[in-house]
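User: Here's a chain of 384 residues. Predict its fold as tokens.
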Amino acid sequence: MNMLRLNRVILMCCALACLNLIQLMCTSSAEAQAPVMPPIPPINITPTPAPVVPAPAVTPVSADPTLKVKYYEFKSICLKPEQLKTSRSESVNTKRLALLNKKLKASEAKKNSTLTTKIKSLIVKEHLQQENFRLAEEYFKKESANFPEDEALLLSSDLDIGKGLLRQARDNLNLYLEKNPKNIPALEKVAQVYILLESYTEARMAYEDLAKINSKKDYTEQLCETSSRGADHLNVDIYCARLIRKYPTNHLGYIYQGISWRDQEKYAEALKQFQLSLKIKPSEFASTCLAESYFLIDQHDKAISQYKESIKIQPLSMRAHLGLANTLVKKNLFSEALEYYKKSCELGLKPLTEMFTVTNILKDQKSNLSDSYFSEIQSCKDRP
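Assistant: Prediction complete.
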């Protein structure tokens, strides 16, 4: 019995020895075939200090409720002469048409066809001037066969302009100019249409063509104006400088040059040009441009004074009243500003956005004046 147990123990030991030997052989074989891996570097557990980043500079918030903006974000009111509506009484309009019809009968009685055609053209233009586009169109259609081709084209263009069909007028004029590239009246008319379309580069190019073919007229002022209104500063330097040199008493050359300087945010040069223009001829145009420039450089007291001077020069100026109101808001003179917003609206301009902005400021301040502004906004909306 004891021998049997001993034999079992011996057999178990032999089996274990064999298993260990087999495992050792397999491991050695695998290590021989496997590629030798480089030793793994130790992990650095020391934390790397973070780079020192300077704290951003804190820009102080302006106490001014209407935040300042760059010039290119500024909605300028001084880019061109202000077109004021001149309304004539009905009796004056009737008399003017009666006089033209009287002259027409006289020329027809004398069988003066040239004068008759000219008077008929003037009748169409008189209807247009009175903004009676229906009568103008009816008269033109009735008499169009009697007009020469170029005169019919110009009258048709004036009708399109009066009805707001600017692109149609432009296309018809350009189609005519393809066959008649040196027709001076058509070129002048298309240049005017380009200005109305705010296509100032095309307008300038039309005037450059006119300057080449029409030696009887100087287009330097138009070239200066279109370059300035198109922010074409290189050509402003050429044409406005030429205008000032040739016609030193022409106040517009200084204004358009000043607008170009102001657009480039060269305010000292702009101020000088507007002041020179005012010395030659006091005008609302130069005065308002000067006031707006003072506003842009935060000289609000000077801007207020200059806007008031603009109103003295031209009491019906819509933009001078608007500019003054906006500047008074900068000084927190909201009640006084409201009066000028009202006047601007009465004259035909609707500064609804500006008044909405002030209304919100006054609401934040819990001012009762906000109700007055809101009431004026409604009144201004309802004005024809």
